[in-house]
């Protein structure tokens, strides 16, 4: 399906890491985030796992719901039509989804669970246009060293764990915990750049 060539998108994400990654590949974007007036759209995004929902289905659904909520916001505000990019990243250990820890106890528990093990990081990107819903999931494996209680306590005393799936970000201090990755560094950071470039080009965005 052909699309008009464009150079700018809407980004439906609060993540500063995703903004940095988009800038890395030269994508011009405008943030499209929900305001208090868009509370009805916020209700469209359910970030709780559904009963029996597999991890890959979870990231696909949440990423799509974020894009759909942002698209409704675009329509409500009568904004110019541009592709909307959203993403969702989750950490999966032994089939269990590890979300963002709500407190220090949860963060410590997650890091103890990840210590000395290999887990998966799934990031789903969604591009919403007037005609299409484009999606792709990138999967990587991350192996942690065995972490001492002191290492975990010291890390969880910082602000690092509390806005990140699994309680860590590869681009931050937790990088010192990681002995091996297999997959996409940018995908683990929250926006796989190869897949993002591919979908945005399919949506008509001119990326050199």
β-strand percent reads: 15-25%
CATH fold field value: Maf protein
On the 0 to 100 scale, the average pLDDT is: 92
Compute the number of strand runs. Answer: 7
What is the makeup of the main sheet? Answer: 7 strands, mixed
**What is the alpha-carbon Rg in Å?**
17 Å
Q: Helix and strand succession?
A: EHEHHEEHEEHEHH
Helical fraction equals 25-40%
Indicate the low-confidence ranges by residue numbers.
Answer: none
CATH architecture: Alpha-Beta Complex
Shape: elongated
The number of helices is 7
What is the fold's blueprint, element by element?
Blueprint: E1 8-11, H1 16-24, E2 28-31, H2 39-42, H3 55-76, E3 84-93, E4 96-98, H4 104-114, E5 118-128, E6 133-144, H5 149-156, E7 178-182, H6 185-189, H7 193-202
Parallel strand pairs: 1-2, 1-3
Antiparallel strand pairs: 3-4, 3-5, 5-6, 6-7
Describe the fold and architecture.
With 208 residues, this protein is α/β, with parallel strands linked by helices. The chain has one domain: Maf protein. 33% of the residues lie in helices and 24% in strands. Strands 1, 2, 3, 4, 5, 6 and 7 form a seven-stranded mixed beta sheet that branches. Helix 4 packs across helix 5. It is elongated and about 50 Å long. It starts with 7 loop residues before the first strand and ends in a 6-residue tail after the last helix.
């Amino acid at each position: 399906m052909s699309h008009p060539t464009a150079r700018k998108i809407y980004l439906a994400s609060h993540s500063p890491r995703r903004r940095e990654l988009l800038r890395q590949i030269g994508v011009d974007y405008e943030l499209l985030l929900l305001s208090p007036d868009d509370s009805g759209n916020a209700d469209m995004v359910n970030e709780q796992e559904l009963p029996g929902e597999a991890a890959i289905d979870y990231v696909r659904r949440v990423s799509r719901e974020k894009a759909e909520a942002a698209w409704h916001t675009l329509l409500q505000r009568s904004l110019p039509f541009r592709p909307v990019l959203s993403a969702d990243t989750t950490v999966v250990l032994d089939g269990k989804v590890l979300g963002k820890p709500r407190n220090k106890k949860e963060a410590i528990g997650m890091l103890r669970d990840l210590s000395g093990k290999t887990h998966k990081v799934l990031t789903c990107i969604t591009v919403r246009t007037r005609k299409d819903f484009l999606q792709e999931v990138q999967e990587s494996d991350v192996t942690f060293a065995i972490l001492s209680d002191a290492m975990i306590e010291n890390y969880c005393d910082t602000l690092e764990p509390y806005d990140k799936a699994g309680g860590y970000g590869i681009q931050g201090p937790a990088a010192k915990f990681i002995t091996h990755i297999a997959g996409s560094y940018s995908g683990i950071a929250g926006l796989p750049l190869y897949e993002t470039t591919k979908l945005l080009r399919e949506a008509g965005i001119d990326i050199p």
